[in-house]
From TrEMBL:
EC number(s) given by UniProt: 4.6.1.1
Keyword Membrane: no
Membrane spanning stretches: none
Signal peptide feature range: none
Database matches in SUPFAM superfamilies: SMAD/FHA domain (SSF49879)
UniProt KW keywords: Lyase, Phosphoprotein
Pfam family, one: FHA
The protein's enzyme class: lyase
Residue ranges of coiled coil: none
InterPro entries per record: Cell_Proc_Reg/RNA_Proc (IPR050923), FHA_dom (IPR000253), FhaA_N (IPR022128), FhaA_N_sf (IPR042287), SMAD_FHA_dom_sf (IPR008984)
Gene3D superfamilies (UniProt xref): 2.60.200.20, FhaA, phosphopeptide-binding domain (DUF3662)
Protein name from the UniProt record: Adenylate cyclase
UniProt key word Lyase: yes
Amino acid sequence: MQPVEVAAALQREAADKKQIVGQGRVLVPNAFVVELGPTDLERFGEWDAPLRSELAGMVEEHARDQGWSFVGDVEVQFERHEELDTGVFRVRSSVVATPDAGGHRTQGIGRPRVVVQTSPERVVLLTRPVTVVGRGADADLRLEDTGVSRAHAELRLDGGTVRVVDLQSTNGTQLNGRRVRIATLTDGDRLDLGATTLVYRSES
């Protein structure tokens, strides 16, 4: 596996997850995680920061060529996954707003979003009709929390309304301290999934 293969996979991931957000503007993810097996992570780790910066730059250049927009700085992280063989990797992505992002980036203020109360906090824009939240590799919003099911809940966007739907998770979904199966969210609502808290924001 070579860095150019990873760069190509990141560009495909951006293309696969692009969303039209208004007036023909195309929004693509800006936060990428490359899941690597132990051997590849050790090999890539020798050039960790420069390589991640180079990969991010290649994604930005590709996006500019395509006329795509971001809501924040493009970041690439490497993550260790013991089950992955040498030469095998996976990519996942999300839309994470960066405060005061400028240039060709689209501001996310006023758009429906959730703030993941981790350290550091993550701001994730809700740009697609359904965002799956969970611990599994296929989740759109992935939480590294053993108390969260692989596919724990969905955040469903319908016009200006966002609903949370629990997917029969093991530990349930709590809205402002009350367990719910399905509920409409309002600005400032607190969702607890396992030990992780998400705060819903719909206003500036």
